[in-house]
Design brief:
single chain; 116 residues; mainly alpha; two-stranded antiparallel ribbon; 2 strands; 74% helix
């Protein structure tokens, strides 16, 4: 699949997740959504390359001598950056959710009403 198509699909997927978020928050995270989509597409390409060349080059004469490939190094950097961006986006989503009372909350409310 072409990198631009991967980018567009990821971008649309994340935008859809943010459909119900307030407009000002959507505006705030637009750059992060673009960054997440970009990193996702870049890693798609890097994964394709890594499947061909691997993440480590091994010296054919001395197997103990090994060297990381640039694709492998960049993939790991991108994964770390992507996870930070996704974690940040998720925190925005979590702040947009109104949590319903769980059993503990109901129990506390019942105890409070009995004591009044």
């Amino acid at each position: 699949m072409e990198k631009t198509l991967v980018y567009k699909r990821e971008y649309e997927k994340i935008k859809k997740i943010f459909n119900d978020v307030e407009d000002n928050k959507k505006e705030l995270v637009e750059g992060l959504i673009q960054d997440a989509s970009f990193l996702y597409a870049e890693n798609y390409v890097l994964r394709e390359l890594i499947m061909e060349v691997g993440t480590i080059k091994i010296n054919p004469v001395n197997k103990a001598l090994q060297k990381s490939t640039e694709a492998g190094k960049q993939y790991l950097k991108n994964v770390n950056s992507y996870s930070i961006v996704i974690k940040t986006l998720n925190s925005i989503l979590q702040k947009n959710v109104i949590e319903e009372d769980d059993d503990f909350d109901k129990w506390i409310k019942d105890k409070m009403s009995i004591n009044e």
